[in-house]
Specification:
90 residues, mainly beta, globular
């Protein structure tokens, strides 16, 4: 059983993207790169997404998503943290 008392006071960004996409987030001179997957752990399934904790960083400068067999989707900031973004590959 998992219990969450509430959302953390730290900043985060969540990007839902096609399975197998490489998601790159740039903010405050830092860079995160993660694989969007539907199976983040043992016996778990979820929409294909990445969740990145940003700590004190409140603004994202750029999000780049490399979608397999489709190409690259890019969103330039400023992008406010504490939000969910969906990228669709067609």
């Amino acid at each position: 059983m998992f219990l969450s008392d509430s959302c953390t006071t730290n900043n985060w960004i969540e990007i839902e993207a096609p399975r197998g996409s490489i998601v790159q987030v740039e903010a405050d001179g830092k860079q995160w790169k993660m694989l969007a997957t539907t199976d983040p752990g043992f016996a778990v399934s979820q929409p294909s997404s990445v969740h990145i904790g940003l700590g004190d960083i409140a603004i994202v400068d750029k999000i780049t998503v490399h979608i397999p067999y489709v190409g690259i989707a890019q969103l330039n900031g400023p992008i406010q943290a504490r939000r969910r973004i969906r990228v669709q590959g067609q």
